[in-house]
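Chain X:
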Amino acid sequence: MTDRGTITLFHGEALFRAGQPATHFYLVQHGTINIVDQAGVTTMRAFTDGELFGIPEVLARGTWMLSAVAWGPTGVQRFTAERLFSSLSEMPKSHSDFLCQIASLA
């Protein structure tokens, strides 16, 4: 299922579920990830090729409020929270403050 941070999902397979800790953020390499309500019925948002998602939740060190499910065969690259936090320490304070402000909205 994983290879160097790359995850291959089948149609309907969950990447994460509501209530799990947000320890990674993701880049959709191909396919679609639907962010669905807790019942798994309504798609709240869809991410497709080249889109990043999960950064505000990781910055907030929170849990996923919704679930992420593949729509069709999908590949995503996974990045650890530590990678994001180490990048924050290397960027100008104004940029890291901005990202932290975004995280407070998650």
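Chain Y:
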Amino acid sequence: MKSRIVSFRLPCDLVEIIESEARSTGQSRTRVVTTALAKAYDCSVPLPPRVTPDQLQCQLDELRAEVEVLRESNNLLRHLELLESQVSLGDDVENAIASLSTKGRSAWMVRVLSEAAQKELIPLRVMKSTG
């Protein structure tokens, strides 16, 4: 449902009633006013479902889990960047990697290096460190 912000001057007593109703029912002032106006004008207004504290906690837990996955991915990418500076896959493969987008390159490197480490599917030559 589309909505827009509007401003009204209301008597203080009415504002107190709206706020009291909102507190006692756990609803927003907007929902209280919208529901009252819809009843007064005999029209149905679709309201978004109320969100319970349990639902918010579930969403928070999911977001925390996603943050942890991203943190681990970031650590893996840092490790891969270090490995990338020490390992050469050959000019043809390196040129193919360079042609990928940054996101595609990272995903490809993760997959290939993981497979190489686990199954030794591709030969890797360790470059000598300079310095």
